[in-house]
């Protein structure tokens, strides 16, 4: 997606399909991925709704910027601190994940803050200016921002101070805030996303990506509360605690315990491809090939 979205969609994907016996039609295309791949999987049917028929987005990067991890780029004045007239409280940027007695791990079970948004961004600023650190925040800026006169991505906020540029935020909203776009274009997007979009995130995602998914769910389901949207939303929790980053849906061991992300993150294909194939077969146009690709 981002600046290269059209080239990927109109040139790269058809080239791959022609080489590897792809059907080359929207009803037979699907996307799946986690983290940044989860955002891509969510974005494809939203930005190219006629070109995809199934999408499984796990732990996606922020799908709405009312919660750009922990930052509301529309209402807050600063990306590093909560707005307050009397004190400066840092916004959290990363928390440790779940570890417990059922599935022990290397982290604590408390979800404690490990790094703030300011610390993460200042590290990137040391590594490279003009969104060139190769860090996650700079990567997002390179995708979502327009080019400034100097040729580099326009800053969503001052990297040193955290002051938010609300003009850039408006551009982000109109072009890449996926929940905003779904709500704005619901009359045409709604029927196409019905039954095709599936979103999964851990209730305690390490990067706070669960915040945006919950905001997106509320925003989309609030369009018409009397009618189901047909979009699947799964907020993952187990033993009263939220799954951390890379949750892709529930899977259980022989004793009925939910498996940890360290296992389920290795089985995306096994979890999603059968559901994708069933969707394609059930919605294929009359006379379409629904057998040669099913082994």
UniProtKB/TrEMBL annotation:
<dbReference type="InterPro" id="IPR029058">
    <property type="entry name" value="AB_hydrolase_fold"/>
</dbReference>
<dbReference type="InterPro" id="IPR050583">
    <property type="entry name" value="Mycobacterial_A85_antigen"/>
</dbReference>
<protein>
    <submittedName>
        <fullName>Uncharacterized protein</fullName>
    </submittedName>
</protein>
């Amino acid at each position: 997606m981002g600046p290269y979205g059209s080239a990927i969609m109109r040139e790269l994907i058809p080239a791959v399909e022609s080489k590897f016996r792809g059907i080359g039609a929207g009803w037979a295309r699907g996307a799946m991925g986690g983290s940044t791949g989860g955002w891509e999987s969510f974005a494809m049917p939203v930005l190219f709704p006629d070109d995809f028929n199934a999408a499984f987005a796990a732990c996606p990067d922020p799908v709405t910027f009312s919660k750009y991890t922990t930052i509301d780029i529309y209402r807050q004045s600063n990306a590093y601190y909560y707005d307050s007239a009397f004190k400066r409280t840092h916004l959290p940027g990363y928390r440790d994940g779940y570890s417990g007695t059922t599935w022990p791990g290397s982290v604590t079970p408390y979800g404690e803050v490990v790094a703030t948004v300011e610390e993460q961004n200042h590290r990137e600023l040391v590594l490279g200016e003009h969104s060139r650190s190769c860090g996650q925040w700079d990567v997002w800026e390179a995708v979502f921002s327009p080019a400034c006169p100097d040729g580099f991505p326009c800053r969503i906020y001052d990297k040193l101070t955290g002051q938010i540029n609300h003009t850039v935020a408006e551009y982000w909203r109109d072009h890449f805030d996926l929940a905003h776009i779904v709500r704005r274009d619901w009359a045409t997007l709604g029927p196409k996303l019905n039954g095709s979009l599936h979103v999964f995130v851990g209730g305690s995602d390490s990067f706070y990506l669960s915040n945006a998914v919950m905001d997106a769910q509320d925003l989309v389901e609030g369009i018409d509360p009397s009618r189901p949207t047909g979009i699947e939303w799964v907020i993952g929790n187990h033993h009263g605690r939220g799954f951390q980053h890379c949750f892709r849906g529930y899977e259980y061991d022989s004793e009925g315990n939910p498996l940890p992300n360290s296992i389920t993150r290795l089985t995306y294909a096994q979890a999603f491809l059968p559901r994708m194939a069933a969707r394609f077969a059930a919605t294929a146009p009359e006379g379409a090939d629904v057998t040669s690709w099913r082994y």
